Each structure stands twice: as structure tokens, then as C-alpha cells.
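Annotated sample (chain length 337).
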Amino acid sequence: MHRETAKRILYLQLILLLPLSLLALCIGTEPSSISDALQALLGRADNTEQLIIRDIRLPRLLLAILVGAMLASCGTASQGLFRNPLADPSLIGVSAGASMGASLCIVFAAAVLDVPLSFLLIALSAFLGGALASFLVYRLSLGDYGTSVAMMLLAGIAVSALAGAISSFSEFYSDNEQLRRISIWQMGNLSGSSSMQRWSLFALLVAVLFFLQINAQRLNALLLGESEARHLGVNVDGLKVLVVLLIAAGLGLSVALAGIISFIGLVVPHIMRLLIGPDHRFLIVNSALGGALLLLLADTLARTIVLPTELPVGVLTALLGAPFFLVLLRSKRQKIL
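Output written by the structure step:
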């Protein structure tokens, strides 16, 4: 039953991806028709149209798809690791840790940020910050009977506050250009990526999805509890380390390229879990596609909802995701308390 439902939802999302992509290419400050957009993609339109479609909107569209898929995949992995639907990377301090690492790199490694591969330095710093936050929250929330939801949220608040303080410290020592760069980046920004950056994120997304998918049955066993998973032959400690590293790497590169975009990793996996169940064999890929669709739609709205200006996409996802989280928190309050 869940297998057939998962397949139908997967096919539906694949079908929706094309018209939503065309919509994202066509609307904006300078709207285009579908035929003009297709002509521009084929290199048959005038220079202005090709500049808008191929050099501005298409790279942004691709980055939205990749970042959305990565954030939703990391959210699915986080919820599987903590065995709780509230375990979104942005809520448990991982995003704040990645932001801290990237901010420190932008300010204190400014001398080497002009080289062509500078974004890799930011991504590495974001990865290290996210990994440190992941391990801290996990260790603090770990009890005799697994992870405590209340401790996880409290530890996430504490780690986020500490990481935010360190980020603010780096901003205090930044110059005007660095401060502007950090401020725009922290609100979530999908513009300005290079093809090399997008290919790097695509390669990492494939690796993250591959390793999560081949460990889907182990994540399913972990849902039963750590002792039960061990009895089923799962190397629980090794699985934890692998999942944390995948989350930190995926989130680190996403944060380095697109800034802080909240709640994609919370909303999408939870909705998919309601639709197709908790089986990670079907949940991971469906969540990745759902994240790509949701962020693409959010970015399209962010570009057009307050024309001619542009709303930062991270602000829009937070405005939409925060009420969802409050409803989810209310529905789970008996379990938390």
C-alpha cells in the first residue's frame, strides 16, 4: 500500500517539476511567455531575453532545486537519526553551526577568498561548524532510553545561541562589504551561483542520497530503538556517525551557497511521512523531490510577491514554516511533556 502510494507521489512530483520550472523561468520583473523562454533556452531569442532566462533565472532555478532537495534530505536523515519529526537541522542548531563556520571564514579568511575556489573554503568551514553542532546536540540529548525530545530542543536552543553569538562576534570585526555579504547571505539568497558551484552541490546531493538510500533499512531499524537495531545487526554507532557527517556536509555546502533557508527540512519530510509512512526506502527520494518543489515555489513567490523588489527566500520560508512548526509542536506536546 505505502509502496504504491509512494510511487504515485513520486511520479506526481516529477510531473509537477516541469510546469513549475517553466513558471519560474517566465515570471519576474520582466515577464516572458513560455515560447520566449523556450526560445531563449535554445539560444534563439534576442540577447536581452537570453540574458534574463539563461544567465539569471535558469541558474537560480537549478540552485533552488538542488538546495531544496538537499535540505529536505538532511531533514529526513535528522528525523530518522533522532527518531522524532521535530528534528529539523535548523531547529537543533546545525544550521546555526554551519552559519557560524561560514561567517568566521568570510571575515577571518578574507585574505584568501578572492581565489576561484573560495566557496569551497566557506563550504568546508560551514561543514565543520554544522558537524560540531550536530555532535553537541546529539550528545546532550542522548539518555538511557535514546534521545530526549525536550533535551534535543533545549540543546538546539543553547547551541544556536552560542553559534549566533560567535557569528555576531565575527560580524563585529567585519568591514562594510563583509557585513553586507553576511547579512544578505543569512537571509537566504539563491542568486549569483556559478556552474562549478552548482555541479559541486549536485555531486554532493547524489552522494548524500546514495548513502542515505543504501542505509534506508538501517534507518528503519533505528526507528525501533537503538537496542532493537543492534539486535537486528545494525552498527548503530557507525550509522550515527555516517548520518551526522552526511547532514553536516550537505547542509554546510547548501549554507555556503544559499545562506540560511529554514524549515524546508522540517515541513517536507513530515508531510511525506504523513502521506507515505515512515519507510525510508521511499521517504528519502520523495522528500528530496518535495524539497526541490517547495523551495522552487518559495523562490518564485519571493521574486514576485513584492515586485519590483525581491523578498529574501529565507524570510519567506521562515514566515511559512514557523506556523507549521507551531501546529506540529502543539500536536506533539503530550509526547514532549
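Annotation: The domain at 2-336 is CATH 1.10.3470.10 (ABC transporter involved in vitamin B12 uptake, BtuC).
Annotation: The chain has a mean pLDDT of 83.
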